[in-house]
Design a protein that fits this description.
CATH superfamily of the largest domain: P-loop containing nucleotide triphosphate hydrolases
Number of strands: 12
Strand content: 25-35%
Helix content: 25-40%
Oligomer: single chain
Order of helices and strands: EEEHEEHEHHHHEHEEEHHEE
Bound molecules: adenosine-5'-triphosphate
Shape: globular
Largest sheet: 6 strands, mixed
Number of domains: 2
CATH class of the largest domain: Alpha Beta
Length: 259
């Protein structure tokens, strides 16, 4: 099996404080993972590290077989699609959605490079895949929150990444748009040639069965990791959140409520 992310004994310290402590985590190809953690648990820090924006204080990390310190990070980043709210905030509202998707090929925010007919067709194909091709010709600012997320995911796929990171993609979505986006991600993840996906969330019930593995992060440490269905017990989650919770499984998803 091909290892996509290999993190060994990684810690990251800032101002004498451990933000990440002794993280060990391996993601194999086509093994889709969810990362669940409360605000401030270290999720974004971990993603910044996987993308090579920050380096471990101690420990080793390699992504897609490239060991940090011995690799061209800009090249590596082209193999990683990263969809986050900070990406969304950097997009100009007046940009056409198809141009936003196309810009994913160059990992740029605006579209400055020239592109071919083939690139344009691929952009349309990615929009088709995400179920948002009807938006062609529209500007970003006229799209709903859910439509914007789909455009950004299509952009993330444009460069045929081996790893796709979806960082809280359901933020700001209403109940129906959230379910629609989750189903779209589920469909994408099940495709034959799908990239390995890391799905970051605060919410247990957003973790669909296709995310067969979950990493629980708490206060910068791995609280638990492994098969989602084994991890999401009421005992585990009550300890994890330091609050008594009930867990109910419906449609292969765990739903959590206060006890
Ligand atoms: N450069 C930095 N210097 C000091 N502290 C930092 C730095 N970056 C992050 N932190 C701290 O590390 C902790 C983890 O932050 P991080 O943003 O990774 O959490 P998160 O799980 O992504 O949170 P959220 O769910 O709210 O996005 C926080 O307490 C944050 O204040």
């Amino acid at each position: 099996m091909e290892t996509v992310v290999d993190i060994q004994d990684v810690s990251w310290k800032r101002q004498g404080k451990s933000i990440l402590s002794n993280i060990n985590w391996k993601v194999e190809r086509r093994e889709h993972w969810a990362i669940l953690g409360l605000n401030g648990s270290g999720k974004t820090t971990l993603l910044n590290m996987i993308n090579g924006y920050i380096w471990p204080t101690t420990g080793n990390i390699s992504v897609l077989g490239q060991t940090f310190g011995r690799t061209d990070l800009r090249e590596l980043r082209k193999s990683i699609g990263w969809v986050s709210s900070s990406l969304g905030e950097r997009i100009k509202g007046s940009s056409l959605v198809e141009e936003i998707v196309l810009s994913g090929k160059f990992s740029s925010i605006g579209l400055y490079d020239s592109y071919t007919e083939m690139d344009r067709n691929r952009a349309l194909e990615m929009m088709e895949k995400l179920g948002c091709s009807k938006l062609v010709g529209r500007t970003y600012q006229t799209c709903s929150q859910g439509e914007k997320q789909k455009v950004l995911i299509a952009r993330g796929l444009m460069g045929s990444p081996k790893l796709l990171i979806l960082d809280e993609p359901t933020n700001g979505l209403d109940f129906l748009s959230r379910e629609d986006l989750l189903l779209t991600v589920d469909r994408l993840a099940r495709q034959e040639n799908a990239p390995t996906i890391i799905f970051v969330t605060h919410h247990v019930e957003e973790i669909l069965p296709v995310f067969s593995k979950t990493l629980l992060l708490r206060e910068g440490s791995v609280y638990a990791q492994g098969y989602t269905e084994e991890i999401f017990t009421k005992e585990n989650l009550s300890q994890f959140f330091s609050t008594s919770v009930e867990v109910e499984w419906k449609r292969n998803r765990a739903w959590m409520s206060l006890r």
